[in-house]
Amino acid sequence: MIRDIGIMAHIDAGKTTTSERILFYTGKSHRIGEVHDGAAIMDYMAQEQERGITITSAATTCYWREHRINLIDTPGHVDFTIEVERSLRVLDGAVVV
Description:
This protein has a four-stranded mixed beta sheet with strand order 2-3-1-4, with helices on both faces. 26% of the residues lie in helices and 26% in strands. The chain has a single domain (2-96), classed as P-loop containing nucleotide triphosphate hydrolases (Rossmann fold). It has helices at residues 15-25, 46-51, 81-88; strands at residues 2-8, 58-64, 67-73, 93-96. It is built from three helices and four strands; from the N terminus they run E-H-H-E-E-H-E. The longest helix is centred in the N-terminal third of the chain and has 11 residues, at 15-25. Strand 2 and strand 3 form a beta hairpin. By secondary structure, the chain is of the alpha/beta class. The chain is globular, with a radius of gyration of 13 Å.
């Protein structure tokens, strides 16, 4: 079964940190990337790593039991709200942090 899940909240709430933990605990990643170190997998752009914020929605796939989960980490800053709105169209559900 495939599920498209978004992670949403206001800025600095921990969306990317939550996404990094999900990737680690599902076995997709072998380390927990930290936003403040610029080592988060979901924040792949140089500007995101320098600023410590998510600018564009980032998607990845992980597996949990018999489910394929398409995880979308969305920005929290109000300037990038359009990224969140575009993600809403494809989601089955969301985690609000």
